[in-house]
Write a sequence for this structure.
């Protein structure tokens, strides 16, 4: 945690990028705006000379990039996260525009680790992947051709994040200790287990229950104490089945 | 002139771009935000397969791109123009940030043709080239690494231009008919000639007089009638020498 510069507490997560040139260009875009924490989820080719070439002075971000097997691993420790996408068929999540999302991200990153997640160049983030994040954000664009290049999208969010730091940071909410990603993940798994044991959830006929539960928990802005309460309740339910 | 969509009245001028890939990526960035008028001043390589590849669906902008021998030619007919740069040693010009410049550009483009000019990837715009424009604009960035990729800079300005169209357009100033680039250029040449004939300007010892005059006229926001007045005065001076 860097208390003086919230930009240093914001991870840029690129999930499944196909083109190493885009990884390099994204690193350059980040560095121009003062971001430096690049996290990669299973890039198709990396490291790669094309990534280095497009980084053009931001190779240090590539060298220090953290590798992850999946998005949950990349979000470990984060108390706030933003999923980016140009398409959102399901609008159950909070959907913000880039500017509002950047302001919220900077406000959160003043006090807690945070992340912004970009999907693959062609397919974006799946609904399930986006559902791991606290809010969803989109870049306003021409609806006839909303197809921003990955590094161009990173550039716009990085720019908005830098501008957002010029706003005075809101004070931390003294009473509020947000649950981090792992705590929410454990709570989710606990729900899944208890719902299964109780007969409420039938793994043979799952429907959309688990993704909806996952999304509900990502959105709910729970604090640590509230996670403890819910898990205590689930523990009590678990004991009823013994 | 498109009265309904000011974005269609804004030319994006790329001066002396070195890399055709950047031209293609700039076209894509423009199209995502609803801009379509691409103007190229002596690109090193164009057309080029790399430009087409990076355009990724915006090849129509490349096909319709207008070619120019120099920046004055690209600015013909424009009543307002913005020069972009990350460096400005001389601050005699109006210097705006990207957001403010985009708002002004959209407000002007609602009534008159307008342009935004980007320099070469490595060298940017010379002071003289930038001095041809009405205002200068910069993208806020990390001073330790302000090196935005050309297409990334186009993307940010295009994004800000699109957001600016969401603001209500100010009404045209009914009394104000801004002089366009050619009228100002003729006025500049007239000054140059008359200053020379009058002995005020010594071509053998030019100092910085002509660039300063050029910049002054670009900045001054003259209207057509004022240009006529000044040229009438210069004509009168010219006759004194006969």
């Amino acid at each position: 945690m860097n208390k003086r510069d919230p930009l240093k507490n914001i991870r840029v997560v690129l999930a499944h990028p196909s083109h190493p040139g885009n990884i390099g260009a994204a690193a350059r875009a980040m560095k121009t705006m003062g971001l430096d924490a690049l996290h990669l989820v299973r890039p198709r080719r990396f490291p790669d000379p094309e990534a280095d070439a497009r980084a053009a002075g931001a190779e240090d971000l590539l060298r220090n990039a953290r590798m992850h097997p999946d998005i949950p691993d990349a979000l470990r420790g984060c108390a706030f996260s933003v999923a980016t996408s140009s398409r959102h068929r399901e609008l159950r999540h909070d959907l913000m525009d880039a500017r509002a999302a950047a302001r919220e991200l900077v406000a959160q990153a003043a006090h807690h680790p945070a992340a912004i997640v970009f999907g693959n160049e062609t397919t974006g983030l799946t609904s399930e992947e986006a559902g791991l994040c606290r809010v969803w954000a989109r870049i306003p664009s021409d609806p006839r051709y909303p197809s921003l290049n990955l590094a161009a999208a990173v550039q716009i969010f990085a720019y908005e994040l830098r501008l957002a730091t010029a706003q005075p940071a809101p004070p931390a909410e003294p009473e509020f200790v947000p649950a981090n990603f792992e705590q929410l993940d454990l709570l989710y798994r606990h729900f899944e287990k208890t719902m299964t044991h109780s007969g409420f959830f039938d793994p043979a006929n799952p429907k959309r229950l688990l993704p909806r539960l996952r999304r509900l928990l990502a959105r709910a802005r729970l604090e640590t104490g509230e996670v403890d309460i819910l898990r205590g309740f689930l523990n009590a339910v678990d004991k009823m089945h013994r």
Q: What stands out?
A: Residues 181-240 of chain B form a domain with the Helicase, Ruva Protein; domain 3 fold (CATH 1.10.8.590). The interface with chain A takes residues 25, 28-29, 31-34, 56-58, 99, 139-142, 144-149, 151-152, 155-156, 159, 162-163, 166 of chain B (CB under 8 Å).
